Amino acid sequence: MISKRILKNLKPLNSAALQCYLGTGIHTLGLLGWILEQTGRADVYVSTFSTSEEFLNGFLNLRKKGLIRRAVMVADLKASKKTVKLNQLMSYCFDAAYLGMNHSKIVLVQTEAGQTVSVATSQNNTYGGRAECTIISTSQEIFLSLYKGLKNIIDNSCELNGIYRRAIENDRKVSASADSSDSDWVPFGY
User: Fold this and answer.
1) Domain residue limits at 156
2) Pairwise CA distance, residues 15 & 85, whole Å
3) Domains held by the chain: number
4) What's the CATH code of the domain at 58?
5) Is residue 87 part of a domain?
6) 190 in a domain, yes or no?
7) Structural domain includes residue 134
8) pTM (2 decimals)?
9) Who's near 112: CB < 8 A, 6+ residues apart?
10) Integer distance in angstroms from the first to the last C-alpha of the chain?
11) DSSP strand pairing (158-159 vs 106-111)
């Protein structure tokens, strides 16, 4: 369900190329749901300092509804202690998650048809009662500029899922080289 505050303060995407909101009550997840209801299924790129279990659960629900085709997240390395604790949930939400030197908070949405929406916000992917500022744009130029910057951050980051994937692959290599214990047991009574 879309927040009444979103409906009261923001115009449909097709009627406003640029709009903003400063205040309380509009959270990034609700805003993303509102955007995806208008664009349909899309790729989503999220940049944040830190994230929360609530945001990830809501993001997963959007994914289960089929509104998200591909998703990538970049979080800050300094907030990695909290982020790593949420790694399993993040792996269900995002195709790739990165840790890097990042304090930006953006959401980029791009449909297969090429429609783009960019959100720049002061809000982390957490919840609280503080006033936040959000700017929403449907400009292709703004999207491409932000995407280029995000790609640069990703290129200088460490893939969170990659850390675990490499550790599992290394464990499998060790396990594969170990002797099999299949012949080490004898049925009871023989």
Assistant:
1) 1-172
2) 41
3) 1
4) 3.30.870.10
5) yes
6) no
7) yes
8) 0.82
9) 41, 42, 69
10) 66
11) unpaired
pLDDT values of the chain reduced to their tens digit, one per residue, 190 residues? 567 889 999 999 999 999 999 999 899 999 999 999 999 999 999 999 988 899 999 999 999 999 999 999 999 887 776 667 788 888 889 999 999 999 999 999 999 999 999 999 998 888 778 899 999 999 999 999 999 999 999 999 999 865 545 555 555 565 555 555 555 555 555 5
Q: How far apart are CA 156 and CA 150, in angstroms?
A: 10
In a domain, 15, yes or no: yes
